Amino acid sequence: MTVWLSEAHAQTERKQTVYGEVGFGAGQTLFFGDIRTKLRQAIQARDFEPGIAGNLLLAFYVAPERWKGLGIGGRLKFSGSGGGATDDQGGEYFFNYYNIGLSAKYYPISRQYNKGLYGRVTVGTGQLTTKHQFNDPEETYLHQFAIGSVLTGSIGWTFPLKTKSISLEGEFESGRRNGTISRVGDGHVFRSGQLGLNAIVTF
Q1: What are the φ and ψ backbone dihedral angles of 9, each rounded to 5 degrees?
Q2: Could you give the dihedral angle defined by the CA atoms of residues 46, 184, 132 and 25, in that order, rounded to the nearest 10 degrees?
Q3: Could you give the CA distance from residue 30 to residue 84 in angstroms, rounded to a whole number?
Q4: DSSP letters along 99-127, please?
C-alpha cells in the first residue's frame, strides 16, 4: 500500500489520473447473527458488547477524465476497538480487524472525480482478532482469529482544495469470517460490521 500511495502521488503530479487517499475515522462496531454465542465459546466472552472502533484508511484510485467521475483502485482499512469491554472480574476484551479489497468510487452529479457527492463500494477479504485478557496473576488470555469476506459501502462529499481535497463520508461495513473454536472445531462463522464516519485527504 505504501508503494501504491507513492506511485499515486507521482502520477497525480504528471497526469492527474491516479489519486492516493489517507483517512481517519471512528465507528460503532456491529454484531450480526450469533457472533455473541461464538465469542462466548471461543474466548469465554459472556456479555461482550460491541464498542467504538478507530479507523485508519489507505487507498488509491485510477480515474482518467474519460471515465466521467469513476475511479477504480484498492483500499485498506484497519479498525480497533481496544479494551472497551470488561468481564465481571476486571479482565478486558479486545476486538480488532482489518480488510483489503478492490474498490470503485463514483461522482454521479459532478461526473468529475474528486468533486462533490460520491458513492464508494469495496469488496475484499479481511480478518478479525478477538482476545480475552483475564485479570489473574498469570495474565492468561484466550485468543480468536477468523478470516473471510468483507463488503463496504460509503456515501460522502469531497471538497476540492488547490492541490489536495478533503472528504467526509458515512460508511457501512459487513463481514463474514470463518474461524476455529478450541474444543468445538473448524468452520465457525463470525459476522460483524461497522457503521462509521471518516475524514479523508486525497492527493
Answers
A1: -65, -45
A2: -90
A3: 14
A4: EEEEEEEE-TTT-STTSEEEEEEEEEEEE
Rounded to 5 degrees, what are φ and ψ at 50? -65, 145
Q: Dig out the grid coordinates for 137 from the structure.
A: 496473576
Confidence of residue 137 (pLDDT cuts 50, 70, 90): confident
Q: Which residues have CB under 8 Å from 165's CB, separation 6+?
A: 114, 115, 158, 159, 201, 202
Decide: 75 and 103 in contact? Cβ < 8 Å.
yes
- Interval 118-135: pLDDT, tens: 999 999 999 999 988 888
Q: Give 142-198 pLDDT, tens digit per residue.
A: 999 999 999 999 999 999 998 899 999 999 999 999 998 887 888 899 999 999 999
C-alpha cell at 166: 478533503
